[in-house]
């Protein structure tokens, strides 16, 4: 049994320690915000935060995570009460298909927690690690700039 702290709540999980966090989130805990894209740490769809830093949950084994603070997109707010990052993405209508958006929000959240004064180039550089196949990059950029204001 491995105990994970996710969005401030402790969860005992029974998965093999080598199981990537993404599978535990989605299959064992019912947290479906983080998405499976490539499974190889290349696309960013699965991005969550661990101790304030953005990580690819598809290549992060749960064995590495006890005692660490995991945050997923569900931890940013709710449908009834979206958090500032979620609100900014909605206000800028940043999503096209929306598949990449949870990962984008988590990487942007990590950036703004590390650097609340992040400027356009900081945001561009930081979001290089996440892909959007719809090509809504400019709206995503605007959303993160709005969240930073
Ligand atoms: Fe994890 Fe693509 S699914 S980086």
TrEMBL record:
Residues 1-76 form the 2Fe-2S ferredoxin-type domain. It comes from the Bacteria. SUPFAM superfamilies: 2Fe-2S ferredoxin-like (SSF54292), CO dehydrogenase ISP C-domain like (SSF47741). It holds the Pfam family Fer2. CDD domains: fer2. Keywords: 2Fe-2S, Iron, Iron-sulfur, Metal-binding, Oxidoreductase. This is (2Fe-2S)-binding protein. It comes from Rhodoplanes tepidamans.
């Amino acid at each position: 049994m491995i105990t994970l702290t996710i969005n401030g709540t402790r969860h005992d999980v029974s998965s093999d320690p080598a199981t990537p966090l993404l599978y535990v989130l989605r299959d064992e805990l019912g947290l479906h915000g983080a998405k499976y894209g490539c499974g190889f740490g290349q696309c960013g769809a699965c991005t969550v935060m661990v101790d304030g830093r953005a990580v690819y949950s598809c290549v992060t084994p749960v064995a590495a995570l006890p005692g660490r603070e995991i945050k997923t997109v569900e931890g940013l707010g709710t449908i009834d009460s979206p958090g500032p990052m979620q609100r900014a993405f909605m206000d800028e209508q940043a999503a096209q298909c929306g598949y990449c958006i949870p990962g984008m929000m988590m990487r942007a959240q990590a950036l703004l927690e590390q650097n609340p004064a992040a400027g356009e180039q900081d945001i561009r550089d930081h979001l290089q690690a996440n892909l959007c196949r719809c090509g809504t990059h400019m709206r995503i950029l605007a959303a993160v700039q709005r969240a930073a204001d």
